[in-house]
């Protein structure tokens, strides 16, 4: 139905079902070809606001909640420093305006 909000994506739904069945969180996410989506990258974005350094293992753990694929993890690894670099540029730009 167009215009209506959708439910959770397949990988998230699978993770929720796995957790509901008393599965271990690290194995709840989808693996294989269909786990190479961008959900892991979206999920790690808030880590850009955590005091550095954010360890790669934490990024991998957060990503693997729903996406256990190396390509999804690689995308997630790029998100945290990318957001931080953007924030630093914005802060530098606006700090000039405040002086």
UniProtKB/TrEMBL annotation:
SUPFAM superfamilies assigned to the protein according to its UniProt record, in alphabetical order: ADP-ribosylglycohydrolase (SSF101478)
UniProt xrefs under InterPro entries: Ribosyl_crysJ1 (IPR005502), Ribosyl_crysJ1_sf (IPR036705)
Pfam families the UniProt entry points to: ADP_ribosyl_GH
Full protein name: Uncharacterized protein
Organism annotation: Hymenobacter jeollabukensis
């Amino acid at each position: 139905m167009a215009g209506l909000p959708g439910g959770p994506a397949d990988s998230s739904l699978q993770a929720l079902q796995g957790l509901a069945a008393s599965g271990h969180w690290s194995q709840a996410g989808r693996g294989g070809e269909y786990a190479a989506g961008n959900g892991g990258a979206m999920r790690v974005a808030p880590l850009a606001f955590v005091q550095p350094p954010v360890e790669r293992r934490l990024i991998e753990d957060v990503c693997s909640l729903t996406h256990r694929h190396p390509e999804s993890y690689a995308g997630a690894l790029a998100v945290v420093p990318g957001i931080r670099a953007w924030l630093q540029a914005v802060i530098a730009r606006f700090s000039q305006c405040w002086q």
